[in-house]
Amino acid sequence: MIQAADLPDTLAIFPLPGALLLPRARLPLHIFEPRYLQMLEDALKTSERLIGMAQPCPTRGEAETLHAIGCAGRITQFSETEDGRYMITLSGVSRFRIEAEVSGFTPYRRCSVSWTSFDRDLGRCEPDPQFDRRAFLDLLERFLNFRDLSADWDALKEADEELLINSLSMMLDFDLEEKQALLEAPCLATRRETLTTLIEFALRGGSQEEILQ
């Protein structure tokens, strides 16, 4: 397990819209662009093998800005295809706050980051004592039926609350800003409340502006 002292001050950033990574969760990625193949190669040379996932922000400027908070993942699985692409898995380690973008000679973006205030991300699985699984799964079933989606209900009923809430936060099809709100939730209970609100508004046909107010 990575310790706080092992976390680097500078991090390679993969700004993939809609791709959410959370601590202790896993995110599969398909790497094929030359600049990100270079990023992967460089990350594998380090002892930490970390890549930072950050959501891009809509902007009118020339340079694409990034949301201030992202999540770093450790490369825990990777395989190469015959045509030189990679299938990798990032295991979420900790969220971070971007302090500044670092100029340099790499084709991918790098940022100086702070890990302060995200200490709980490095600990054990986070509980949610107020979690009402039955009510939550009833709401989720209505949402999936509404979207004409299926689920492995046996697995959902058995999964611990952190795995269930974080996996759904990552997998369900929400807008970029809604995904960012789930990432920035200070604790698991707040993330569950945010996720519940997003599902309820989707069922009611609510807009993103209403949700984020």
What class do helices, strands and sheet pairing give? alpha+beta
Radius of gyration: 18 Å
**Strand content of the residues, in percent?**
15-25%
Mean pLDDT across the residues is 90
H/E series:
EEHEEEEHHHHHH
- The low-confidence runs, each spanning 5 or more residues with pLDDT under 50, are 207-213
H/I helix tally? 7
- By DSSP, the count of extended strands is 6
Characterise the protein shown here.
The protein starts with 9 loop residues before the first strand and ends with a helix. The protein is built from seven helices and six strands. The protein has 213 residues and is α+β, with helices and mostly antiparallel strands. The C terminus is likely disordered. A five-stranded mixed beta barrel has the order 1-3-4-5-6.
Summarize the structure.
This protein has 213 residues and is α+β, with helices and mostly antiparallel strands. It contains seven helices and six strands.
Keywords:
alpha+beta; five-stranded mixed β-barrel; disordered C terminus; 213 residues; single chain; 34% helix
